[in-house]
Amino acid sequence: MKLEVAAAKARGDVVDYVPRGGAAPEAFDSAARWPECAKLIGDIRDQSNCGCCWAFAGAEAASDRQCIATGGAVAVPLSAQDVCFNANVDGCDGGQIITPWTYVAKAGAVTGGQYNGTGPFGAGLCADWFAPHCHHHGPRGDDPYPAEGDAGCPSEKSPEGPKACDATAAAGHDAFAADKHTFAGDVQTASGEAAIMAMIAEGGPVETAFTVYEDFENYAGGIYHHVTGEEAGGHAVKFVGWGVENGTKYWKVANSWNPYWGEAGYFRILRGSNEGGIEDQVTGSHADAKWTRAGDSD
């Protein structure tokens, strides 16, 4: 998931983030820092039984950064359906964390919510997610959804990318070309604890990826660090902040495994030790990027 970042830098599609200075606070939460965007930042989605984590994390962080860059004026979720299947031929089979950002910058992304209009933004957006909610990993707890692979949560094949809005789309979100949101400005990448903290504090949540081990799949809460188990694969997620608990530094991270998973859809992971390579590369739009909606420029 992270290999493409170096190649994208060589092509000029992404540039290194340069911190503007200033000490980072001991604790930071994007939703608290930008309350006008808190509903959007806290929108925990569900990728279903499809390997579109790269598109979910990107669409979510791009939604957040658009909201923050516009001072809360544009607080709508961008469509993981559009990003996953129009930016990648077989999005359910995985992707790169740079792809959502170059796609949104060049082609734009329409609005889109969760499966069947669920989630905090409800129905009426252009291209909602196509696949049902699932229980993903770890203790079931109160999770009412079927587990991956069980009846009701089959392994999904990538559909064709949307070219028109859903029949349920409401006025203002029912014209696909007009509902495209894009930005002018650099796609940036940062590496290492200090630079990542600065990038989040300046412009909001960012996308990252890390190696998942078997013990992470059993996560139910607390500050995770790898102890046991084999490598299970790569996974893309969204950094939203950081903190310290009993002297232990951590990142606060939004997952796309539904709000019943982990700590209400989030997990905390050890900060400063590059757990699973999670501090290797993050991606996001420039904090000063100019965001526009195609239909608003007509």
UniProtKB/TrEMBL annotation:
Molecular-function GO terms, alphabetical: cysteine-type peptidase activity
Keyword Kinase: no
InterPro entries tied to this protein: Papain-like_cys_pep_sf, Pept_cys_AS, Peptidase_C1A, Peptidase_C1A_C
Alphabetized Gene3D superfamilies for the sequence: Cysteine proteinases (3.90.70.10)
SUPFAM superfamilies hit by this protein: Cysteine proteinases (SSF54001)
CDD domains in the record: Peptidase_C1A_CathepsinB
Region of interest (Disordered), residue spans: 141-166
Domain Peptidase C1A papain C-terminal: 24-286
Alphabetic keyword roster: Zymogen
One Pfam family hit: Peptidase_C1
Protein's GO biological process: proteolysis
The family this protein is said to belong to: Belongs to the peptidase C1 family.
Protein name: Peptidase C1A papain C-terminal domain-containing protein
